[in-house]
Each structure stands twice: as structure tokens, then as C-alpha cells.
């Protein structure tokens, strides 16, 4: 595991923001903030195929950690439950151990249990172990071109904020820069943008369903993000871009110093 420190550290106090992001593979990341452990889109299966009515998804790499190794978390931030590359079989089993799952309205109906949802721009407070609060705001996400959403379904992103905390945007499977502009207008400047990228393409849709590297770079400018962490660009055959293409796009945009592409098993402390 590698750890990198960024300029979000407070020079006066000599300490960082208290945010750590560990990539576990695909869209799955473990966030530690204000004493809370939050997990995005759990995918813990070994490599394999997931046949569907329209397409088959193929996972090519194991997770960096098993579900048992991750242990308990305070909440799961689930962008959507309908695609195996965002919630696989082991991930579904893991949800039964989680006290709170935050996701879409449809996910509440399908998963039940501890799953909760809010309309876009509404949210709830999670009490941190250190006595502070992390406010979670649901924000829009668009999984591909607007015409494709009839096939890709409902997706949500999240913004985390709180007194003395960095503001963190978690994109989920969003591919729309118009959505990013709306989030920037409604939520203000973002300190850390956790972007799902990889330029996913799933035949027969023949549409780009997640951010390209160039779009991720533009999103970072729109958001005013001081640091951009890219995940969900590895481990599945439908990604058409990986680390090299994403880093090249940020270099081309003059934004390379903002970017960290987290490989599975790597962590970033801010």
C-alpha cells in the first residue's frame, strides 16, 4: 500500500484534513473522515462474468481486500445497486452487516433492510466518533447520455461536508459535465473530488457511460477541486481508459498536480 500526502494539510497546525481514501478495486473505496469509516459501492467478488438481459459484464481482477478484511463500516455510500460492477454478489452479502446504506429510491425498494434515500440536494447527518458531524448530501448523477439512462437506471452521487472537514464529492457513475456544473453551483467549491472514470462502454449501447480522462479533468476545473482522486477505471473489461490515459489527459490540461489515480490497495491521506 502506498500513502501520499497533499496540500490539503493545514500548515499552521502541521496536520492534514483527517481524510483518508483507500482504493479496494473498481468503484470500492474506504473513506475515513471525522472518525467514521464509509465504504463506496461494495464489490468483493473474485474475477468472473455477470450475464444480463442486455449485456454481460466481465470482472478481471480480484479486490485488494476481502469483505471480511474490511470489517465493519459506519455506512455504505451506494451509487446504484443494479449493475454488478457497482454491487456484486459478495457486496450484496456485505450489506447485511452494515448499519446504514445510503442509495437511490429504487435501491431502497429492492434492498430494503437498512437502506435509506433522500431526494437530490437533501441529506442527513452522520455522527462522527470524535463528536463532529459529517453531513451527507445526495446529488444527481447521469449514467451515460440522457437517452441511455432508460437502460442504465437511477444513480446518485454524494457530497460530504462538515465543520472543519474538507468537502468531498463522490461522483458515482456520472458521465455528465452539466450535472457537475449544477453540483458546483449548488454545493460550492469542492476540496476533494472522488471521480468514477474509465470511459466505460458496454455493447450494444455503444455510449460512454462514465467520465473520460478529459472529462474528469474538466470536472475538476468546474468543481474547483483542490485534489482529484480517480477510481473505477480498472478491473473490468468495459473500461476503455485506464491510469495512463487519465494521467495523460490531466497532463494535457495542465492539472497533473491535482490528480491521484488510486490503484487497488493504494491509499491517500489528505
What is the structure about, briefly put?
The protein is α/β, with parallel strands linked by helices. It has one domain: Metallo-beta-lactamase, Chain A, CATH 3.60.15. The longest helix has 11 residues.
Summary tags:
20% helix, 270 residues, 27% strand, disordered N terminus, alpha/beta, 7 helices, globular, seven-stranded mixed sheet
Structure explained in plain terms:
By secondary structure, the chain is α/β, with parallel strands linked by helices. It is 20% helix and 27% strand. It has seven helices and 17 strands. The chain has helices at 67-70, 89-95, 105-111, 149-152, 177-187, 213-223, 243-252; strands at residues 3-5, 20-25, 28-33, 36-40, 48-51, 56-59, 75-77, 101-102, 115-116, 123-127, 133-140, 156-161, 168-170, 192-196, 227-231, 259-261, 267-269. It has an eight-stranded mixed sheet, covered by helices on one side. Strand 10 and strand 11 form a beta hairpin. Helix 6 crosses helix 7. The longest helix has 11 residues, at 177-187. The relative contact order is 0.18.
* Fourth-tier CATH superfamily name: Ribonuclease Z/Hydroxyacylglutathione hydrolase-like
What structural class should be given to the helix and strand makeup? alpha/beta
Strand tally: 17
**What percent of residues are in strands?**
25-35%
Question: What's the structural domain tally?
Answer: 1
Question: Which percent range fits the helix content?
Answer: 10-25%
Globally, the shape reads globular
> In whole angstroms, how far apart are the ends?
15 Å
Low-confidence stretches: 1-15
What Rg is obtained from the alpha carbons, in whole angstroms?
17 Å
How do the strands line up in the largest sheet? 1-17-2-3-4-7-8-9
Amino acid at each position: 500500500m502506498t500513502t501520499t500526502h497533499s496540500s490539503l494539510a493545514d500548515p499552521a497546525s502541521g496536520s492534514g484534513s483527517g481524510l483518508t481514501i483507500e482504493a479496494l478495486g473498481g468503484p470500492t473505496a474506504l473513506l475515513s473522515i471525522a472518525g467514521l469509516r464509509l465504504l463506496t459501492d461494495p464489490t468483493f467478488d473474485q474475477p468472473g462474468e455477470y450475464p444480463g438481459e442486455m449485456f454481460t459484464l466481465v470482472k478481471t481482477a480480484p479486490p485488494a481486500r476481502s469483505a471480511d478484511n474490511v470489517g465493519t463500516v459506519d455506512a455504505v455510500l451506494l451509487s446504484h445497486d443494479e449493475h454488478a460492477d457497482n454491487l456484486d454478489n459478495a457486496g450484496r452479502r456485505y450489506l447485511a452487516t452494515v448499519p446504514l446504506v445510503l442509495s437511490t429510491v429504487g435501491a431502497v425498494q429492492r434492498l430494503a433492510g437498512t437502506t435509506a434515500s433522500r431526494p437530490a440536494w437533501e441529506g442527513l447527518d452522520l455522527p462522527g466518533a470524535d463528536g463532529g458531524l459529517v453531513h451527507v448530501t445526495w446529488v444527481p448523477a447521469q449514467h451515460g447520455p440522457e437517452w441511455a439512462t432508460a437502460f442504465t437506471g437511477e444513480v446518485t452521487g454524494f457530497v460530504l461536508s462538515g465543520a472543519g472537514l474538507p468537502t468531498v464529492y463522490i461522483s458515482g457513475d456520472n458521465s455528465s459535465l452539466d450535472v457537475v456544473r449544477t453540483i458546483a453551483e449548488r454545493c460550492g467549491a469542492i476540496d476533494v473530488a472522488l471521480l468514477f472514470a474509465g470511459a466505460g462502454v458496454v455493447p450494444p449501447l455503444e455510449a460512454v457511460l462514465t467520465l473520460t480522462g478529459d472529462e474528469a479533468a474538466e470536472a475538476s476545473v468546474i468543481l474547483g477541486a483542490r485534489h482529484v482522486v480517480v477510481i473505477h477505471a480498472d478491473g473490468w473489461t468495459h473500461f476503455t481508459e485506464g491510469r495512463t490515459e487519465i494521467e495523460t489527459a490531466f497532463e494535457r490540461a495542465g492539472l497533473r498536480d491535482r490528480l491521484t489515480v488510486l490503484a487497488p490497495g493504494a491509499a491517500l491521506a489528505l
